Amino acid sequence: MGAHRAKNIAFLPLSLLLGIAPASFAAEPSLAELWAIVEQQQVQIAALSEELAATRATITTTVDKVALTEERLSITADYLERVAETTPRQRTQIGGYGELHYNNIDADDASGDLEQIDLHRFVTFISHEFSDRIRFFSEVEIEHSLVKDTADGSNDGEVEIEQAYIEFDLNDNHYVKTGLFLVPVGILNETHEPPSFYGVERNNVENIIIPSTWWEAGAGVGGHYANGVSWDFAVHSGLEMPVSGANSYRVRSGRQKVSNANANDLAYTLRLKYTGVPGLELAGSYHYQSDPSQTSGDGLDDGSLLSLHAVLQRGGFSLRALWSQWNFDGSAVSLAGSDEQTGWYIEPSFRLNRGASDWGFYTRYEDLDGARTRDQFDQWELGVNYWPTDNVVLKIDYRERDHARSAENGRDFSAFDLGVGYQF
Fold it and tell me: Please, what is the Cα angle at 102 between 98 and 105, to 5 degrees?
């Protein structure tokens, strides 16, 4: 009995290793059973070895595929880079804007009453990017729908090229441009698409004092910086103001529109602008021409324009304010009382900012003292803009004009206007 117990104790380590219960719990395995267990474990070990070898082969294949893919991507990137370096960029864009107006004017002098519908403007933009640094801009406009050759020139329609210039980037902050471009002055002269402003008609100050839309031909240079400061300076063709007749010394009548323009006397324009505070724009422009009539000895010497404006945007509330004044030297222009021509306006507005479609409400007060007595008035205006979608606007407004300071009281009127405009 003691010998049998000793035999069980000796067998215990082997039984634990093989997972066999000791004799105290189960019968002793035979030699054949032990051999069968060993063979079974060898089969399992062989199977595991095969799986390990297959896994290693799969990993090796995957690594090879990743390396091949990386090599192909590198080759493709090199090829695309070479193509980009040798193929010129061709980026041409087309856009435009237009506006249709209905005016119902009730004048104090009944002969001035007017009801009319006018496709005031139809404009097409074409721009082209030659490279990262060089680009072209153009704008072609048809006014009043129809252009017709009439013997007396009485047709209202016009076809005009308002922009056609090439711009070169000197670096990230500076540029030069040359060609036919909009003069950098005022709020509307460079940005005058109908969805961007209130009122069916553009404000009078930036029509009579600043003769928008005002373009000239020449060359300009400018810079813009991260702190919100920018500047523009241009040397360009100038005005050729009439010195006699009904429109004498009227600035707007002096625009040559770069049509065989008289270039005896060039003009210079400088603008400084600050937009470093979100929602705020402050700007001032100075324009000078030593002879705005292009003819010496006619009693009109040099002329200069100073224009200041501010645009404030806080949530839905917006405020625009602009002041502009011409000063002319010369005996004849002083005698005519046209040596100083001034205008200013203030325009508060509120936009609901509802998203896809939106409403805006505004009022505007203008005060003008132009060369002609008919251009000496003040005007109140209020109205509504409705944007059914971005870049499309419907407009309605009411205006009252008063010529109390001039001999043009018969030109006083009230008006009701409707308009539709778009840009793309």
Answer: 140
